[in-house]
Amino acid sequence: MPATLTRSVRHGLATLGLATLLGGCQGLPMAQQAPHADPMASAPPIERGLDADSLSTLLTAELAGQRGDYHRATRGYLAMAERYQASGLAERATLAARFGNDPLLLEEAVQRWHELAPLAEPPLRLLAGLALQRGDWVTALEYRLNLVEQGAHGELTLFMEMALDAGVAPLPLRERLAAHLERPGADGHPQYYDAALAMAILEAATGQTRRAEARLDSLARDHSELPALWMTRARLALEAGDNTRARDMSRRGLAIAPDDPRFLLLLSQAELKLGNVAAAEAHTDALLEQHDDNSELRISLARLYVDDDHLEAARRLLLPMVSGERPPPAAYYLLGVIAETEREVDNALLYYRQVAPGNEFLAARLRAARMLVEDDRLLDARAFLRIERLRHEDYFNDLITLEVELLDEAGRSEEADTLLDRELARTPNDAQLLYQRAMRAWEVDDFEAMERDLGRMIEHDPDSAMALNALGYTLADMAIEERLDEARELIERAHELEPGNPAIMDSLGWVHYRLGDPERALPWLERAYAAMPDQEVAAHLAEVLWELDRRDEARAITEEALRRFDAHPVIDELLERIPELAP
Description:
Blueprint: H1 7-15, H2 52-67, H3 70-84, H4 87-98, H5 103-116, H6 121-133, H7 137-149, H8 156-165, H9 170-181, H10 192-205, H11 209-222, H12 227-240, H13 243-256, H14 261-273, H15 277-290, H16 295-307, H17 311-322, H18 329-341, H19 345-353, H20 361-374, H21 378-391, H22 396-409, H23 413-426, H24 431-443, H25 447-460, H26 465-478, H27 484-497, H28 502-514, H29 518-531, H30 535-547, H31 551-564, H32 569-577
Helix pairs in contact: 1-16, 2-3, 3-4, 3-5, 4-5, 5-6, 6-7, 7-9, 8-10, 9-10, 10-11, 10-12, 12-13, 12-14, 13-14, 14-15, 16-17, 16-18, 17-18, 18-19, 18-20, 19-20, 20-21, 20-22, 21-22, 22-23, 24-25, 25-26, 26-27, 26-28, 27-28, 28-29, 29-30, 30-31, 30-32
């Protein structure tokens, strides 16, 4: 979406009570239990008669779960769910898998639960949440539409807002939702309005503004009492830059739902866009009266003012926060941004230095250092980062990384290399710095230096899955024939250490393909793409499908990747090698 509806407003709306789309994934308990508690205590009981072998398998699964061996517990329950076609056992397998660290095993358990209980709502919500966690928004939408078709609420409007805010390509979502709305009798569904509102958002995002407005006008005739309608109209008006209309739509919504503070937030932004700062602050004050103890909301409102360059209004919101007993780091960060914008460099530096460890810590140090560089004070920037490393030992390596980045941006890559070499001379086995130097070597095609640093990582820590996979994948990708078996062994070791890591699965598939075995490569790449649908895995999968003469599937994967990613250099390189793959 265009940047008109700022991230601060979206964050504020979420803070004011928008349900999380990952909610399905939170429906089962997570690991963090009381000592000696039975993590399976809340699971459904096992009620059917069993033969001796089945009883042994289930007892083993139960004991494995109590000992914390959740992988074995999950496998045992899944085996019995398959044998007895019992959804309760698949549900129990899902619960066990939630405590493990293997997302693919969790998805397998939930999928089996769904297959055995296709009308049950919890597995569908879990599958939707898992798809969302791995960034597969189209599949997540598919599961949410299944929920809708079963009579549940799919929260499609919120889903589309979140998707667009995350930068997801809207066209595939629009096409799938259009098919849903074109079903016979779709307009008679109790939640039809939610799907129609979601469709209007997608139409507006893909340039079909008139169609979106017509859809909203139609909804307004039959559902004028719906707050969500006016919420959507106000947001779309803001996106279109029609700030007067946005204000009017927000007022209509507020009249219908006077207790919904999201309309006050939208009103604040509309007034700001219209230049009515006093009116915006009045709405802001009303919001804060309702949520006086909500520091996240205050921060979101301050971001709103900063984004629209109303710095004094933002400062009035922030200063009371930093005078309290526990000032939020984000307040210092925004005060630093304000001072930096006003070219008060030293004042901004003081604020940035007070941002405590947490989400904004590194961003504050990077902004401060860049600000000093732009003020022709590179030496001061480096001294600042050096002092910060001494003040915050836990962030030592991260701050080295920032300084390397800063030097690269300033065209001083040799000094960046010198810095890394000096720190590694001091701590020669530091995994983070070794890996950073290895990746820098790879970027300049210095494979020998890359292998040396990754080899040192592996020598110091033979169980470094990251280093094993990085070296193995590089050897496979370079297709050095005499070292392909070595590459496979390295990746297999990495997989033993992290069996649920999709990047390692992609490496396994790719090395088998390089070894001339596309049939063996395919299932690994399919699993990797299901868990991590990024463009590099898509390119590998498409190439292997093409090699196996499954041309239509290969083109479909390529087309999906081209639509999903704004920038797709890996897919472009694949199309240069195999032009026939173009959809």
